[in-house]
Structure formats: C-alpha cells, structure tokens
Amino acid sequence: MKGILLAVVLFIATIGLLVIGTLSPIPTAVYYAGGKSLTRASSTPQDAVENLAVQIRQRSFGDAYGSLANRAEFTEPEFVQDLTGNTLSLRTFATLEDFETQPLHESADDAEMLLKLHWSTVVGPYETTRDLHVVRNGDRWAVDWPLVKAPHVPPQVIPVNYLRWDVIYSGAGDDWGAQDVQAPRIRIVDMRPVNRAEGVVVMGELLNEDIVPAFVGVRATLLSKSGSPIASEGAFDMISHTLLPKQVTPFLIRFPNVDLSQVGSIRMGPISVLVSASADPVVEIENQKYNLDPEASLTGQLSNQSGQTVNIAHVLSTFYDKNGQLVWVAGQYVDRALPPQTPVDFSVQVPEDLAKQISSERTIVATYSSGNSL
Amino acid sequence: MVAVAIHLPLLLMQLPLKSYDTNFHIFFASHYVHHWFNPWNVKWFAGFSQTTYPPLAQQWVAVVSRVLGLNMAYMAVQFAAILLLAVGVYRFALLWVSPRAASIAALAAVLAGSESFLVYSAGQLATTCSAPILLNALPYLYDWLRYGKGRSLLKATVLFAATAAVHHATIIFASMFFALPVLALAWIDREESDETSGSGFAARTVAIVILTAAAIAVVLLPFWIGLFRYPITQTPIPHPSRANYILSPQWGINYFLVPYGALILALPFIIVRGSRVARLRPLMLGFWLCFMIGLGGTTPIGLWLLRRAFDVLTFERFSYWATLLALPILGALVAGLVARFRLKAAVPVAVLAAFTCAMAASWSHYKPADAEDFNVAPVAQWLNRDGHDNYRYVTLGFGNKLSRLAVLTDATSVDGESNSSRMLPELTKYGGGALTDAKYFGTGGLESLRAMLRHADRYGLKWAIVRDPYYEPLLVFAGWRHVDNLDDNTITIWAKDGVPPATPMNTSQMPPPWEGYLWGTLPFGSSILAILVVLIPDKRRRAWREDEATVTPITQETPLSGRLVS
Fold this sequence. Notes:
The complex is a heterodimer of chains A (about 375) and B (about 575).
Chain A: H1 2-23, H2 27-32, H3 45-57, H4 61-66, H5 76-84, E1 95-106, E2 110-120, E3 126-137, E4 140-144, E5 164-165, E6 186-196, E7 199-208, E8 214-224, E9 229-234, E10 242-243, E11 248-256, E12 263-274, E13 277-278, E14 283-291, E15 297-304, E16 312-320, E17 326-334, E18 344-349, H6 352-355, E19 360-368
Antiparallel strand pairs in A: 1-2, 2-3, 3-4, 5-13, 6-7, 7-11, 8-9, 8-10, 8-12, 14-15, 15-18, 16-17, 16-19
Chain B: H1 2-12, H2 22-34, E1 40-41, E2 48-49, H3 56-68, H4 70-94, H5 99-111, H6 113-122, H7 125-147, H8 150-166, H9 168-193, H10 198-219, H11 221-229, H12 249-260, H13 263-276, H14 281-294, H15 301-306, H16 316-341, H17 343-366, H18 377-384, E3 392-396, H19 401-408, E4 412-413, H20 425-428, H21 442-454, H22 456-459, E5 461-466, H23 472-477, E6 480-486, E7 491-496, H24 513-534, H25 539-546
Parallel strand pairs in B: 3-4, 3-5
Antiparallel strand pairs in B: 1-2, 5-7, 6-7
C-alpha cells in the first residue's frame, strides 16, 4: 500500500512539475521556445501580435503567413521576402532576437499595435518597427501585415565605365600584408578625442593622398601622462577600409571605461596596403537631410547607380559645426539590399547632446557585394 | 558478444567522428601524445591549461594511439568503455535484483539509446567512460558499508578516484544519484540482517567519504588548483538540452525520444515496481530525480536544485545516468515478463531494444553535428607553410572540425571548443560558444566574435578561415581582406593587415612544472591502480555466485526481500 502511494505521489509530482514547467517556463526554456511560453489563442490584439512575432522568431513563416488577416493580398513568398529581403541583404542574415509590442489604439473590432523587432546580425543588432493594424474575426484577432512590396527594376542596359585598379602580386610566397611594394601614402587630416559617458572616443578623417587605391585602417593608443599605454583600439567597422585615390574616410575609435582626464597623449597608427579596387559600385546619396526632431538624425536615400545589387551598405557620416570642426562620426547599416537604380532609405542617428552643434555633414558609403571580395 | 556485434562495427567505421565532441577529445589526446607532462596547450584560446578538464580518458587515447593512431585509439577506448559498462551495470544491478535480471540489465545497457546517443551523436567520451567505472565501484561501496571489508574500501576508493580522473561532473553529480541509493540499500539490508551497528555504519560512511574525497582531491589536484585560482567566469552559454521539450518538441526528440527510445514505454512500470519493492525504492527515487533533472527546462526542478550550475551543465548526461539507474528495475521487469510469457514477451522486448539502439546509433546521420563533411587538411597545410603559423587564426563555419584542424596544424588559434578552459575576456564575457559557430549563439555569439576581431592585433590574430559566407560582411566591414581560396573555393582565407606576429599569452595561467608532473602521473596512475586492485580476489563474491542457482525467477507476484531476490 505504501509503495502504491509512493508511485501515485511520484506520478502526481511528475505531472505537476511538467505543468509548471510548461505553463510557467524557466527563462532558458522561454528562449528556446521563441520568446514566449505557450502560443496562446489570439484572443486579444496583443496575443495576435505576440504570436506572430514568435512565429517570425522561430522562422515558421508558413504559420505566420497563415495567421494574417490580409494574406489574400500577397503570397507567402512575398511575405517571407518582406521579412528576409528579396535578395541577399542584412535581413537575410538576421535572426529575431527579441520583440516588444505596444498598444496604440483599440476598439471592439480593430486595434493599432506597434511591433518593435530587435534583430541580431553578423555586423551588429538593428531594430525595425512596424505599425500593425489588428482586426477582430469572430472571437479571434488577426494582424493586417503592412507589406512593403519590393520595387521591380525594368530590364535595361547599364554602361560600365568606372575606374579599376589591379595589383599583380609577387607570387605564391608573398607574405600577405607585408608586400614588397611601397604602401600607398595616407594621412590623418583631422583627429579629435572626446569624452563620452561610455568612455573616450577618438574620431577623425583619413585621406588617401596617393594615386592608387589603399586598403586602410587606423589604430589609436591612449598614453597616460607618464607615457605608459592605457589602451589600444582600432576603428573596426567605423571606417571605410577601401579608399580610392584622394578619397577621405571618417573614423571613430571607442575606448570603453577610459576617462579623457587619464590621457596624456594619443598615438595614432594608420596603416595602408596596396589593393585591387574599382570605383564600382557607385552609390549616390539623395535627399540628404539633417533633422533635429523627433530624434536627431541624418536621413536620405541611397541610390545604386551600378548594374549590380549591393547586398549590404554601411553609411558613415561625418558631422561638423559651423566652423567646420569635427563634431561626431556615426554609422548605420542599411538592412535592405540596394538594387540597381532603386533608392533605399537610410537614417543615421546622432547623440542628442551634440545635435545642436551640427551645421553640416558629409556622408560616404561602404559596401558589400556577395562574391566580390577577392 | 552483443556489444561486439553492435558497437564494434560502428566504431571500426569511426562513426563517432561525426559527433559533437569526439574531435575535442582527440585534440586533447593529441596534446598528451606530444606533451604528456606539460598540460599547457598553446593551440587554443591563445594558450590554455588542459588541467581544466580531467584527463584520464584522453590520456588512454594518447597511449593507445602509439599503436593505433588517434582516431582508432579513440574508438578502442570507447569500445572498452562500452564493454566495461556491461560489466558495471551487471555488478551494480546485482545489488538490487537477481543475477538473471542483472544479466538482462547489462544487455539492455549495451542496447540503451542514451549510450548510443552519447557515443555516436554527442561524442561524450568522458561521460561514457566514467559511468562504467563508477558502476563498478558501487558494489565495493556496498560491501564496505555492509561488511566493513578493508579490501572493498580500497577498491571503492580507487575506482571512485579513477572515475573523477575521467570526468569531474560524473563524480560530483552522478555519484549522488548512484551512491546515495546504495547507501540506503546497505542500511535497509543492515536492518534486516542486523550485522552492523548504526554507529558502525555511520563511521564506515564517513570513512569512505573522507577517504574518497581525499583521493579525488589528490588525483585531480592541478584541476582544483586551477579552479580555485581561476573560478569560472564564463557567461552562461545556451544549450538546447535546457529547453522545455514540450514547448520545443524538436529538442524533445533529440534529448528525450532518441536517448530513451522504447524505455519510455517502461517508465510507468519502473516507477510502480520501484515503489512497491522496498529494496528498490532508493534506486527508483534516484532514477526519478535524475530523470526529472534530465528533462532540462521541461520542469523547473533542475533549476531549483542546481541553481547556477543549471546554466552550465548539459542534461543529456542526466538522461544517460537515469537510464543506467533504471536498468536494474527494467531487468527485473523483463525477467519477470520472460519468465511468465516466454517468447511472447522476449521477442517484442528484443525488437524494441534493437530499435532503440538502432535509432540512437543512427541519429547522428539524421541530425549530424555538422551539416557537411569536409577535409581540413588543405587548411592545415596552408597554415603550416610560408610562416603563416607565426600568426593566430580563427575559423568560421568549421563546426567540430575546429578540433580536427587544431590537431593537424602547428598554428595557434584564439578559439577552441572547451567552454571550461576559456579565459579570454572576449570569450567569457558573452554567452556564445566556439567562435567558429558564433551565429548559432545569437547576439552573444556574434558579440563575442566581433569583440575578438576588434582585438585581433592584441592576439596576433591575422587569419580568418571562412567556410560560411554568412561571416563575410563582418570581415569586409571590419577591415579584413580576402587573400586566398582553398578546397575548390569552398574555404576562403581572410587577412588583417598590420597585425604583429603572435606572442605567448596567458603565461600567468600556465601551471608550474610540478603540476604537470602530477597531471601526467596521478590520473593515469589511478587507472592502473584501479586495474590492479580489481584483480585482487574477492572471496565474498565467489561465495555469492554459488548461491545464484537458488535464486527464484521473478514474477510480479513474488514478494521481494533480501539481496539476491528482486
């Protein structure tokens, strides 16, 4: 009898623990389940949006598409392309790490919800926001997905007449990077350290003075007042590494947890290497506008003038005050690919405390095109 | 013979090489081949100490590799562990059930899905080698507690020490699930026979705990010193065995259905049988607790009991231990069924067991650790020529081939597969595993990779060897240049300009020479000693075997009491 009682207790305990673990899962289990415990019935607008976000996070695009109220307006592949890009882009590389929902308006039959999607990509996180219209259908709610249809470029011929430089290497034994030719001449034309809440930031501009393209990088070492090194960091992706002749790139180097008062001097270490390069792809910046409200930002459009798609673009903007002095350097990856002849929006954020000092800006674009790396 | 028939062909085919961790163990073993007394390994993490992981199984691979080569040596050691498991389960089961039931339990151990899963999919050599040694130690623990025989004390202590020398997690966690039921069993049996006083029993318990703890402390002394000097600061790294298997059924298949297989059908009966029979209750409770923890995040019990360790441990090994704990009761159940129904029971049970084993052994084919197999030899050749190995490298998209490459090349890397061995802040600060698989760890993994690339100059990190174009945008924007292609352009080499040659790093973490000598001597010595002491004849066991013929076949109705009847 005692044994049977023990078995019954264990069965009940097992079931109870399974129920607790499923209805109120531990954080790790939530992470693997896509961000929520159980997919609830979409009995409220919030549930409908959260269920959709979980399905997107789990890349269950079929289920997500099937749950939409306006799915008759577009096909499932179009929906998937809207989320992941219709060609290789930052969206293709992105995974939905987290999401937030915020009700904007709700009535008996429809609601407006804000969905913030936090994506993780190989070059860093980015965020997209969608205003969703949610409609009631019987006792359930469903989302009207605001599909952004990809523009179609008509067939055309693009003449290619850009400049191109090739380098002949010395042979198989060439020690990459330590080439037996003189490095292109480059020069730091501006440099300014500033103290920020997160630490010291060293920013500036680098010029390729040579008549050949240069692959460049900048490294800065903070030295204490006694001359001993405090920290050494590089510009990483806050610089355009390929510089054509006479081209200028901004750079920004971060030193977290260092205060400028500790710094006696800064040793700058620009490096350059001769590389093959071409002026293609040409990306023009259109409708550039500096905005103070609602958030300080530089907005505009990137227009790919070349005949081939640019998969990922990195916008680097340099901001100056009215005296032409460097105020800030900021960058922004564009999450959509740049198809030929098709403008794509960009927005570069500026710290609010610096926003009013800015009177002019200059923007360049670094690009990545799949298969063009060698 | 079943072990030979099933596992030997699979091991001769080197099936475990496809698993997650096999190459990691081979990499550690390759270091012992060349540097037996120097645990400092410069090939990973810009230099790390191999005293961060118990060495015994890998040292045996290193020794056997002198004859068979590393791959086959691994298979040989793994095969020995499987054979030893059958023996261990039999001896452990004899504590609880009849010899016939114990034989069935041993046979079931060979066919267990969790064993095949760990061997062929997970590649957990240390777990699958340490459990058999632990199981073989437990009967000696029982004998010592019951009869106070010094010979049993010696054998148990040495075998426990050898278990720890193979795998620290097994001795820390599994010993609780296995040893406490044995302790309870010895107490129950003592009450029935009234041979030993309560205080005597307690004294023996304290004595073996102290002696074993001391032996383990000595055998793994450099490990404990390292742990004390450099406590683990690694941010928890996600592992799907911690998922809720109901909410994430894909992981439920991987970590529950495949390892347990047809044993799932027997679970209710194991609980009922284990509850009804007083002598089986400690074992059943140990099984139940281990089973529940083995469910990972499906229930909160693992987090409640293990607390921070929950985010460090992986739970497939708990399922493995739970399976081993269930085997004696399963053996008794099957023995009873076969005794009652003969072939009508034996045939379906055999079919289910074979299916369980087959499914788990073949699982690495259906859900491989690496989607594609590829040859890392061209990469190793590239790194080994023209002074490329003057710099460090990182691979991206290599999966568990990272370890295979490290075996073949002289060059050093900032990456590695041992989460407990990493000290570089760029790795420990973020919740990502090996950099080569950064994308699978979401933001944590990618942040870690970006931090490492950002500090390439600091580590002499000049080469990024890429097999997954996913990482190319990062390299392009971070200032790396594509400089070469290998293996029909499926692997690309990227270089960072201006990086100084790699210099020795982390030297403050380098164990002193005396620790190296201890590391090369004591763990391996414990296994030699274990072999020797086990060979010492055991009079009691011989007498015990003579009683076997008198054991009554078990049926559901047979009242169960005494050591030889279950």
